[in-house]
C-alpha cells in the first residue's frame, strides 16, 4: 500500500492523493456486509436536526470482530479490504475451525500471515512477525510493546487508538495493583487494568493523514454539507450576522450560548 498521485487531467485531480488499494487482492465476503438507512440529518418525523448533514452514498458497513477472546485457534488472513467508514485496512481471516470474521489489520500484516489470541506470556526472543496482530491481555505483554484498539474491562468495544497509524505504548507497570500506565496517541497518560485486552502492533494505513480528497464533492458523497460562518450571514439568519458581533458570547443559529461551559 502506497500513496498514489494523479495526473492533472481535470482541476479536481491536480492535488489529489489517495491510498492505492491494490484491488486485485481485495475479495468481498457478502456475509458481513450490512446496509443502514441514511437519515440525512433528519428525525423520524422528517424535520432537520443537523443542518450540516446530507445523504450518504456509502451506506454499507462491515461487522468487525474487535473482541477476539472467544477463539484461541490459529487464523489465516485470506483477503484485504477497505471501507470508507474506517481509516484502517481490514482483513478477512479464516480460523482453523473454518469460521470467518473481519478484523482490523496491524501495520506489516498481509495476505498469508497468521494471527491468533495469545493466552500465555511472550517475549521478543521469538520472531516478531509471529506475534504481530495477535490479541492478548496486557499482563502477558513484554515490557517494550506497542498496542492498538485497547478494550478496558467495563467496555465491549475499543475506545483508544482506533484510527489509522495510531498506537499505545507502555510507560510503567505497577505489579502490586495490576495497573499499567499507557501513553495515548494524544500524548496523555492513562491507567489501565492488567486484564484489559488489546492488539499487538500499530494500526495499518499510517499514510492516511497525507490523503488529499481533491474536490469538495467527495465529502458530499460521505454526507457532509458545507458549513457557512455565522458572521458571513444576515441578522435574520444568525445572531452573529450583519456586522453586529462585538463582545457577545458565541451562539448557535437559534440563539443558544454554545461555549459557556467550555
From TrEMBL:
<dbReference type="GO" id="GO:0032543">
    <property type="term" value="P:mitochondrial translation"/>
</dbReference>
<dbReference type="Pfam" id="PF00181">
    <property type="entry name" value="Ribosomal_L2_N"/>
</dbReference>
<feature type="domain" description="Large ribosomal subunit protein uL2 C-terminal">
    <location>
        <begin position="130"/>
        <end position="257"/>
    </location>
</feature>
<dbReference type="InterPro" id="IPR022671">
    <property type="entry name" value="Ribosomal_uL2_CS"/>
</dbReference>
<dbReference type="InterPro" id="IPR012340">
    <property type="entry name" value="NA-bd_OB-fold"/>
</dbReference>
<comment type="similarity">
    <text>Belongs to the universal ribosomal protein uL2 family.</text>
</comment>
<dbReference type="GO" id="GO:0003735">
    <property type="term" value="F:structural constituent of ribosome"/>
</dbReference>
<dbReference type="InterPro" id="IPR002171">
    <property type="entry name" value="Ribosomal_uL2"/>
</dbReference>
<dbReference type="GO" id="GO:0003723">
    <property type="term" value="F:RNA binding"/>
</dbReference>
<dbReference type="InterPro" id="IPR014726">
    <property type="entry name" value="Ribosomal_uL2_dom3"/>
</dbReference>
<dbReference type="Pfam" id="PF03947">
    <property type="entry name" value="Ribosomal_L2_C"/>
</dbReference>
<dbReference type="InterPro" id="IPR014722">
    <property type="entry name" value="Rib_uL2_dom2"/>
</dbReference>
<protein>
    <submittedName>
        <fullName>Ribosomal protein L2</fullName>
    </submittedName>
</protein>
<dbReference type="InterPro" id="IPR022669">
    <property type="entry name" value="Ribosomal_uL2_C"/>
</dbReference>
<keyword id="KW-0496">Mitochondrion</keyword>
<feature type="region of interest" description="Disordered">
    <location>
        <begin position="235"/>
        <end position="262"/>
    </location>
</feature>
<dbReference type="GO" id="GO:0005762">
    <property type="term" value="C:mitochondrial large ribosomal subunit"/>
</dbReference>
<dbReference type="InterPro" id="IPR008991">
    <property type="entry name" value="Translation_prot_SH3-like_sf"/>
</dbReference>
<keyword id="KW-0687">Ribonucleoprotein</keyword>
<keyword id="KW-0689">Ribosomal protein</keyword>
<dbReference type="InterPro" id="IPR022666">
    <property type="entry name" value="Ribosomal_uL2_RNA-bd_dom"/>
</dbReference>
Amino acid at each position: 500500500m502506497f500513496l498514489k498521485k494523479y495526473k492533472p487531467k481535470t482541476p479536481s485531480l491536480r492535488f489529489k492523493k489517495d491510498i492505492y488499494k491494490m484491488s486485485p487482492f481485495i475479495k468481498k465476503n457478502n456475509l458481513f456486509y450490512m446496509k443502514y438507512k441514511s437519515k440525512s440529518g433528519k428525525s423520524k418525523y422528517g424535520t432537520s436536526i443537523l443542518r450540516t448533514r446530507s445523504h450518504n452514498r456509502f451506506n454499507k458497513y462491515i461487522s468487525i470482530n474487535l473482541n477476539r477472546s472467544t477463539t484461541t485457534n490459529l487464523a489465516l488472513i485470506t483477503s484485504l479490504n477497505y471501507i470508507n467508514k474506517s481509516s484502517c485496512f481490514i482483513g478477512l481471516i479464516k480460523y482453523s475451525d473454518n469460521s470467518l470474521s473481519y478484523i482490523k489489520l496491524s501495520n506489516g500484516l498481509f495476505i498469508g500471515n497468521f494471527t491468533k489470541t495469545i493466552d500465555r506470556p511472550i517475549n521478543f526472543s521469538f520472531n516478531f512477525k509471529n506475534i504481530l496482530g495477535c490479541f492478548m491481555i496486557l499482563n502477558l505483554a513484554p515490557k517494550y510493546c506497542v498496542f492498538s484498539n485497547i478494550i478496558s474491562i467495563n467496555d465491549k468495544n475499543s475506545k483508544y487508538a482506533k484510527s489509522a497509524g495510531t498506537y499505545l505504548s507502555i510507560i510503567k507497570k505497577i505489579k502490586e495493583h495490576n495497573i499499567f500506565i499507557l501513553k495515548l496517541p494524544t500524548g496523555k497518560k492513562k491507567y489501565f487494568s492488567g486484564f484489559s485486552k488489546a492488539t499487538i502492533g500499530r494500526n495499518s494505513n499510517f499514510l492516511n493523514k497525507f490523503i488529499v480528497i481533491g474536490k469538495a464533492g467527495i465529502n458530499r458523497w460521505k454526507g457532509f454539507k458545507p458549513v457557512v460562518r455565522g458572521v458571513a450571514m444576515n441578522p435574520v439568519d444568525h445572531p452573529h450576522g450583519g456586522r453586529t458581533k462585538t463582545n457577545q458570547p458565541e451562539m448557535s443559529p437559534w440563539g443558544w450560548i454554545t461555549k459557556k461551559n467550555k
